[in-house]
């Protein structure tokens, strides 16, 4: 049986012999290749990965991923279509086309959103896409899985109280600059629907492809009274939480001083 890698090598060296290639594909003598879909920041990053594993090039995948028509077909908008792609390891044939890939992802998405998860989303008053969008923010706020439900709880509290989310990761997404280590007031002025300092509520779509742990952290958020959080000054990846703005300023000053000591000014 011919492997996908050998098939691709054969194709690249025999591009003129299309009939033989078609016969080979029709014979079904292909092995499937495993594709690990991670929590990519943008859909074009996923397109780039798929182009290294499957026949279509990255532009073909990216065009499909950002197609308003394709998004509408599955009940999404162009902005939130990224929530369809669930991180996991999947098996595909080498000649899988973008539309086939998306169809497979739609099946996986439907299977993921079982009755239990749907019920939890309804209890939150959020759609499935909104849960995933919030999960993408939570994921960018903390890489510590055990802390994600606490961070999610802060945002749920803010949503319930009608407060802006004021999520720094949404600014980096709006600015398309992920090298920023210290968010400044000037960054908060960017005119974008993804600026959650400027506009209340959730942004129009996810700021990354969230993983399962982040989605479940939102659905199973920690119930508490915290409204603020700030990275800990020990750079452990964890955060200090506060129930009021005064305490938050104390926590923020600790972190700012730690940044200054490390000469991180932007």
Per-chain topology:
Layout: H1 4-13, H2 18-26, E1 33-37, H3 43-53, H4 58-65, H5 68-73, E2 88-92, H6 98-112, H7 115-124, H8 128-141, H9 148-161, H10 168-175, H11 212-219, E3 228-231, E4 239-242, H12 245-261
Antiparallel strand pairs: 1-2, 3-4
What this model shows, in words?
This protein has 266 residues and is mostly helical. It folds into two domains: 32-111, no CATH class; 115-261, no CATH class. 49% of the residues lie in helices and 7% in strands. It has helices at 4-13, 18-26, 43-53, 58-65, 68-73, 98-112, 115-124, 128-141, 148-161, 168-175, 212-219, 245-261, and strands spanning 33-37, 88-92, 228-231, 239-242. A hairpin with a 7-residue loop joins strand 3 and strand 4 (239-242). The termini are far apart. The mean pLDDT is 90.
